[in-house]
Design goal:
By secondary structure, the chain is mostly helical. It folds into 3 domains: 92 residues, Fumarase/aspartase (N-terminal domain) (Fumarase C, Chain B, domain 1); 252 residues, Fumarase C, Chain A, domain 2 (Up-down Bundle); 39 residues, no CATH class. Helix content is 60%, strand content 5%. Strand 1 and strand 2 form a beta hairpin. The two termini are 33 Å apart.
Length: 450
């Protein structure tokens, strides 16, 4: 069954396989949202007298029944059915006859898939925000627990200045807070209603688009019907940019951990059951989890470019190129959720070394770590900073440098003042702007799940 079929003429099988692509496989993820969109559209059609009360009652009952089948894992797109939209309409027609055929009035498959995708993206973004917050909370707890444990900081991979595990953990926490701000921007663009744009040029039916917007829990409409269709690709690109920002944070953290786990550093360790071994070297404890997080995140960094190239230079109006967007963005959501979950799980079992700078090896290896502390000490005593810098440099060159291990970092965001409460408050303010509860209530009401 094809919603666009006008006669008994059959499409060539090779053409059908190529044009349908992975739609039947990927569209299972959209099934519940297709039901929700149809419920909102049906309620609106009833409000403008395109459905009788009896017809709408029957359609609402059967759509909610299909929704329960989706929830129970019993929904399938049958062989020969092109996509989820065709399957839902076919089920309605089988169960209700001509009434089932009326659900598509004033609607195109173009705005149908657009609204399905936006509802799906909205939920996926909620899950990613939830996973990001869990990792954020883990990092804040680790920063608090290890705020006094010093480790060397590096620039150019050369020993630079004193750092701490508290400073290191909370750096990624604050980065995640900024990533959630990007996710919020993506959510706001996603959470606008394209339904009613039809094929991109509206409808001569007196559609009530504000009604479907409210029923589906959207913040607002995509007002212009052409732009509602142009949003295909743009929405995915904005989401991809937010995901790539989050991926950059996770990837950098994973890279640090793989370095810190190596014997040359030996700063952190994990239980044996969180690492893997070698088929030839019995001593190996490989950081495969973090290497795979790094690799997955590198792949996610390419996502905005892939989506941009899929949709660049297309003229206004719908084009079948947009079908391939699902093949790029759907797996990206799953990969990001898995990376967040495994990172949070693994960090819950991390062990940090608290004596990195204190044993004999550390005292010798990291002596120059405190050179700036000595420069600052002279400057505080009245010596011009540039003279103090030169003096310490000469002492290092002649072998006369004696490090002072006193650390007096008190300003905001430094070793002695991590500002964990402020970073947490920043995250909480951003999280509070997501309308997750309102959206959930709207969807439950629509699907009859209250």
């Amino acid at each position: 069954m094809k919603l666009w079929s006008k006669s008994s003429t059959r499409t060539d099988e090779a053409i059908e396989r190529f044009t349908v692509g992975r739609d039947r496989e990927l569209d299972h993820a959209l099934a519940l949202y297709d039901v929700a969109g149809s419920l909102a559209h049906g309620a609106m059609l009833h409000s403008i007298n395109l459905l009788t009360s009896e017809e709408w009652s029957d359609l609402q009952r059967e759509l909610r029944s299909i929704g329960r089948e989706v929830r129970a894992g019993k929904f399938q797109i049958e062989d020969g059915i092109e996509d989820v939209h065709s399957e839902v309409e076919l089920l309605l027609t089988r169960r209700l006859g001509d009434t089932g055929k009326k659900i598509h009035s004033g609607r195109s498959r173009n705005d149908q898939v657009a609204v399905d995708c936006k509802l799906f993206f909205r939920e996926e973004l909620r899950l990613i925000v939830q996973g990001t917050d869990a990792l954020f909370q883990r990092l804040i707890r680790l920063a608090e627990a290890h705020k006094s444990a010093l480790l060397p900081g590096y620039t150019h991979l050369q020993i630079a200045m004193p750092s701490s595990f508290g400073l290191w953990f909370s750096s990624f926490a604050e980065s995640l807070a900024d990533d959630v701000t990007m996710l919020l921007a993506a959510y706001r663009i996603t959470n606008k209603n394209p339904l009613g744009s039809a094929a991109g040029y509206g409808s001569s039916f007196p559609l009530n688009r504000r009604m479907t917007t409210e029923l589906l829990g959207f913040d607002d409409l995509n007002y212009n019907v052409i732009y509602a269709q142009m949003g295909r690709g743009k929405t995915e690109r904005v989401i991809a940019q937010a995901l790539s920002s989050l991926a950059a944070t996770l990837g950098k953290m994973a890279m640090d951990i793989t370095l810190f786990m190596s014997q040359n550093f030996g700063f952190v360790s994990f239980p044996d059951d969180l690492t893997t071994g070698s088929s030839i070297m019995p001593h190996k404890k490989n950081p495969d989890v973090f290497e795979l997080i790094r690799a997955r995140c590198n792949r996610l960094l390419a996502l905005p470019n892939e989506i941009t190239l899929l949709t660049a230079n297309l003229p206004s109006g719908y084009h079948r190129d947009a079908q391939l967007l699902k093949e790029t963005i759907f797996p990206a959501f799953e990969s990001m959720k898995e990376c967040l979950a495994i990172a949070e799980f693994a960090l819950g079992q991390i062990t940090v070394r608290t004596d990195i700078l204190d044993d004999e090896r550390g005292k010798a290896l990291y002596a120059y770590l405190f050179s700036v502390e000595v420069v600052n000490k002279y400057a505080l005593q009245g010596m011009p900073f540039r003279d103090a810098y030169k003096r310490v440099g000469e002492d290092i060159a002649t072998g006369n440098f004696v490090p002072s291990r006193e650390i007096n970092h008190t300003h905001e965001g430094s070793i002695g003042n991590l500002c964990l409460e402020e970073i947490t408050a920043t995250m909480q303010r951003t999280l509070a702007e997501f309308p997750f509860e309102r959206v959930e209530q709207a969807m439950k009401k629509l699907l009859g799940e209250e």
